Structures are given as structure tokens and as C-alpha cells.
């Protein structure tokens, strides 16, 4: 495999580099970058037209530099034009909002205490009157009537910016929603008026009605409640109703990927047509017409399932593969894969930050690179054993590529992922093979009853297998974490090992050892930083109190009346990623309005119980968790008695930042 055989891989790498650099440059006007892009492209075009063989060597250097510079600038420019900071009508730039006009964009989703939905604003009311505006708002209401897409609402009150985390290293919901271009939320309860309903497009309205109809048919003909939830997730991509216990079981088993409609599901549909109709044997226009019909069906299914990033990737990739197969019967998959990513990122550059997008492409790259290499280790003679070996190698390859991401984001590794894949992949194939015909013929009661019964049985068997894996000892390794440099170094190590196996060259072997050395050095560096820390973290909680004190690499903690959910989501992430989870008890004496701390470093600290601040802040460096970082602050500048974020008190650290 030669890298120069995959031009779209190179194009995508440089375009993505520009997108990733943009946030570090700050909000930038897109116009200058568009001018730079035009100039770069103009120079490239002129030089191409003026090419002479005598200047061949300089061209070998100049032309690629100009081409890749153009792609890099294009990435920055596309990110800039999609940045809401550059839109003067966005809610970002509006003040004194007392009400707004908005359209419902999604179906209601039942939450614990309210109903969630998404609104798109068209106008706002301020002290100067009504004016045009745009932006999306995640709202929560308690209306007796469902809010359907297309419904126009007049909402009272002002939306609020989605708050960043109050404690270090916790899940950043604000950043997660920002990846969807949603920056505001609003609990509207019943403080809104329905003004009417916009007529949805035939396409969008039809898709929504069809999805609702199919959900009702699944609930009607599939009897087991857990099976209904899995069927909706696996066949229609609807995971909103998935119980937490079921999701936890699939996540523990390492089979959560089959519940997120992705390349596996689209590939099954794609492979079904190729298995029975064999388009590679067709000639001329017949093959083109057949492949065009397959592409239309794939996009229709993708639309029904909600067009998630993984589905978009799969549908776009198979579209380009089909286009390539019109001329070639065995096209390389790397170019269509890279081109699909490039097209999606041109449409929405911030998809690159979506975890599903990252996992989807990383898993497929792992399968393409590592699966053939692993499969060569053994050639089973029996056909059934060869089939199981293929499933195992696919699972190992996907896990090799995705485990750094999974540990970075979710802090867990499924121990029995090979067993779960032996259940999940054939199970998904059987369920898709039964489920798609069931959905197609669900309007015919006689057929739907029989096929629904078979689908119900298959789903219950799959659930039973997945739940049994959850109860095996050491079903998962949790409370682990990779920082971004570690993740990159692990990927580099895996890639160099792959190159070593493929090329057997000494320079690649040297790169393998260099990567291992850097990875080991980074781990040593982290340990060195940890043992030189001497600080106290006071968490911001809704109720109760929690303190973590780190000294010489050891954790000392105290928790009082902390709810289990708050511990798991507000305290535990910081321990997993920074201090470690096992610790000793921190001695704290409660003296009325004051708390006295006997710190292992030999110091005593007195905290005001109401403000959580030290009564004597001399020789202490105080930090407040803001915008994802520790910010130095003066306690006398606090506007309220109780800080609205976690506090860190440093005691002469050699490195005061973490």
C-alpha cells in the first residue's frame, strides 16, 4: 500500500488540520481567509498553466505546498463561516430578550421531570421592539399537548447560555451541545403560546410520519419491553427511550456500537443487495442504474434513522464506493472513506468534534488497516470457524483503533469485547435481516405478526446474551484515563507497528521504539507532576460538601451528605483523570460556622462553612474553575457568599497549574 495512491486521504488531512487550528486562533472574520484562499488557488492555477519541463524540480516542491496550503486555508475559512460568533443576528449577540418567536424542530423527548425539544428562533423581543434573530434553543416544557415539528411558538422570557461545568474534568455538556451549534437552553414550562404550524416539506414531514408509524408498529408486534427499546435503537436509530440499565449492559459488554445505527447497519443493507443481485456481474448502464437505486435506498434509510454522524459517514462513503464501482469492480475503500469525511466536514466542519464521528471513522480505519494483518495469523479450515475468526479479527481491529478514544472519553474498557462481538455482530445481522422486512411489510397484519414474533425472539436472545456478559467477573476495566498526548502516541505506536509488519524496514522499527520511549516518558512526567502537587479542591455541589487534598501523590478526601449521582458525575471524573481514585481520610473538624482541616503537610486550614473560603488566605494561591481551566482569583472579588464553581487552594506548588 502506497500513500500516494490515496490522494483524498492527503486532502482530508490538510483540510481537517485547518478546522482543528481555527478554535486556537479565536473567532476570525472569514473574508480575509477567503481572499488568501483565492490567491493561493490563483497562483496554483497560473503555475499549472505555465508549467515547463525545465522547471520540473521546483514544481515538485512548490505545487504540492500551494495545493495543501489551499486546503489548509479552506479548512480555516469553512470553520469561520460556520462560527456563530461571526453571525451578528445570532442569539450570541443579542441582549435584553423578553420573548422570542421560534419553530419546533424535533419530536418531544420525555425527560425525568419535563419534556425536551429543540426550537429554532426567527425573531426576538427586546426593549427596542421585535427584530430578526437566529439560533437554536434546547427547551424543556410541561405542556399537556405534544409539540410537533413545524409548530410556531411565542415564548415568554429569555433563554440562558448553557453553563460550563462547575467542577474540574466533568462532562462538558456546554461543549457537547456547542458541537451541535446549540448554545442556549430554556425551561419554558407552559409559558408559551402556540401560534400555528408551518407546513413541513413533503420530504421532511413524510420521514417524520413514517418514523413514528414504524415505531408504533414495533411497539405493537414486539411484545418484550426491552426488545422494543433495542429494536427502535438498532433498526431506527432512536435511543431516547433506552433504559439506563439496558444501555449500561451493552456498554459494559462492549456492544454499544450496534445500538448506534452506523456503518455496520448500512453495510448490512448494502451487502444484502450485493449478495443476492451481484452487480459486479452487470455491465454498462444496468450496473449504474442498480447502484443508483441502492444509494437512494441507503439515504432513505439514513434519513429515517435520523442522519447521525455515523450514519452520514456510512451513507456518504457507500455512495462514493458505488460511484467508484460504476467504473471499477474492486475500488479502494480508503479514497471513498476520506472523501466522505471531507464532504461532511465541508457541510459541517464542527462534526470533527463529535465523539460519534471520531469513533465511527477510527473504528473503520482500524478494521481496514489491522483486520487483514490479524486475519493472516490463522487460516481455519472449517467454514464456520473461519466465519467466527473473521468476526473476532474485526472486533480486535476495531478495538485496537478505538480503545484510546473510548478510555479518553468514557474511562472504561470492556474486557469481554471479543465474546460480545461474537454475539453482537451476528445478532445485529439476524435482527437487521428480520427487522428490515418486518418494517417493509408491517402494514400487513398477517405477515407482521409472524415476522414480529421472530424479531421479538431474536431480540430477547441477544439481550439475554449481552446481560449474561455483564455479570461475568471483571466485565469491564473502569476508572482509567488517557490524556490527549497519550492517545496520539498510542495511535502512532499502533500505526508504526502496522508499517513494520508490512514493510519490515529498520527505520520503522526505530520509530516504534521512539514512540514507546516518548509514551513511557510522558507517563513518568505525569507521575513527577503528581508527586509535586500540594493543593485542596473544594467541589461545588447542590447539597453536602466534598474536599479532595493531594499531597506527594496521595489523595486525602472528605465527603459529607453527597448524593451518589453527584459523586459519580461531579467528583469521580477529577479523581480518575488527575488525583487517583483510592485515598485516605482527611481529618476535618466541624466547629459551628467554621471547618478546621488538619492537612498531612503539617498545615492547618480554617474554612468558612458558608462561603467554602479560607478565613486566612495569606500565602495561599486561590483558583476558581471557569471555562474549563483553573483561574486565579481574589476571594474579596467574589460577588456572592458561595462561589458557583469548584475552588482550588494551592500551597506553594512547584507547578501551580494542573
Automatic annotation (TrEMBL):
Location of the protein in the cell: Cell membrane
Keywords associated with the record: Cell membrane, Membrane, Transmembrane, Transmembrane helix
Membrane topology, as annotated: Multi-pass membrane protein
Domain of life, per lineage: Bacteria
InterPro entries per record: ComEC_N, Competence_DNA_uptake, DUF4131
Residues covered by the ComEC/Rec2-related protein domain: 234-502
DUF4131 domain location: 32-191
Transmembrane segments: 7-25, 31-51, 58-80, 255-276, 288-304, 361-379, 391-410, 416-441, 453-474, 480-501, 508-525
Signal peptide: none
Pfam families (alphabetical): Competence (PF03772), DUF4131 (PF13567)
Cited NCBIfam families: ComEC_N-term
Name used for this protein in its record: ComEC family competence protein
Organism: Cyclobacterium plantarum
